[in-house]
Amino acid sequence: MFCANSPVINQAGSYPIQKTHFHPNSENKMNPKNKKVETLRWRQGRLEMIDQRILPARFRYLSYRNGGEVAEGIRSMVVRGAPAIGVAAAYGVALEAMRLARKTRNGKQFQRELQKGIKVLAKSRPTAVNLFWALDRMQTIWNQMPNSSPLEIAPRLLQEAKGIHREDIEINLSMGRHGAKLLKSGMRILTHCNAGALATAGHGTALGVIRSAVAQGKKISVIADETRPFLQGARLTAWEMVQEGIPVTVVSDNMAGHLMAKGEVDAVIVGTDRVAANGDVANKIGTYMVAVLARRHRIPFYVACPVSTIDLKTPQGKGIPIEERDPQEVMGHRGIRWVAAGAKIRNPAFDVTPAELVTGLITERGVILRPNRKRIRELFRR
Fold this sequence. Notes:
The protein is α/β, with parallel strands linked by helices. The protein folds into 2 domains: 8-172, Four Helix Bundle (Hemerythrin (Met), subunit A), CATH 1.20.120; 177-379, Translation initiation factor eif-2b, domain 2 (Rossmann fold, 3-Layer(aba) Sandwich). 37% of the residues lie in helices and 16% in strands. The chain contains 11 helices and 17 strands. The chain has helices at residues 67-75, 82-103, 107-122, 129-143, 150-180, 206-215, 232-244, 256-261, 287-296, 328-331, 373-379, and strands spanning 8-10, 40-43, 46-50, 61-64, 188-191, 221-225, 248-251, 267-270, 274-276, 281-284, 301-304, 310-311, 332-333, 336-337, 350-353, 360-363, 366-369. The strands form 4 sheets. The chain has a 7-stranded mixed beta sheet with strand order 7-6-5-8-11-16-17, with helices on both faces. The protein has a 4-stranded antiparallel beta sheet with strand order 1-4-3-2, covered by helices on one side. Strands 12-9-10-15 form a 4-stranded mixed beta sheet, covered by helices on one side. α1 runs parallel beside α3, α2 runs antiparallel to α3 and α4 (129-143) crosses α5 (150-180). The radius of gyration is 20 Å and the shape is globular.
């Protein structure tokens, strides 16, 4: 039976950032040359992930022992961000294979149960294409071992998961190098949601571009939309930038147009959970509004995305499944309710920005300006 027990909390005092409680008036910076955010890490046969639901008030790792726990961690947004979800899913497959290898030597039973585990992981978040990309990659490795025993398959799957983990960091660094060329010193960058180290295996996509520009000596400041209802911008993007001493200003989502009209935004950079074959982009709800405002005010709108996030099987944005999350997320926050009783609530987690509003896609293979089907196909030939 596929296990889904509650994860074991590990306070992880060895984590580079020692503070576990947030003090608004205190110095709480991280030296990026020596310390980095490890969103996910492999420790003593388990996957550990930062619990992003409680940042910045508290800091802790949760420890995961099997695929069912990892699926729940993805679903409940302990981990979020398409690249990080993909890495977590890969480890989820490996953990489940390890659990089953300890449980049975029967090859057919192992195959049936592991296949069930992969299906559970696939259902955890429907919009982020990296989830399915990672599961397909793990499935391919497994398919290449038809005559191997469970005790041989499990370590090979773990090796692949670790490889996906390492590759994601390298991909983000490469994206950062390409994207940093677009930024000039003194620019003020608006971002929506969190596309930083917390959304990836490390460095980040949209924030990775900013990190790379800052590392080159450019003076860059960040404007972070709150990103309602889960507040990824206010909680996570601001936290990351404060750790590294990069100037950041938090604004509510409905302030972006005002700042653009006043000439206080020089560019927009966001991440994405899926890019359709024609260049349409699915990202956190509210991104579409930001893109429309950027076009109105002639501000460049960039999307930082690994090539694995481009879904050639989905012709255009309307074919991207949009996750509807629990209405409780909109109703209030951490036990405080502000929606009137009896009101209906909608909670789509993502929206789609048409390709015509995207100035460029920043990938590890380079920047695609004015993305369309032809330019995206050419990217895959590089």
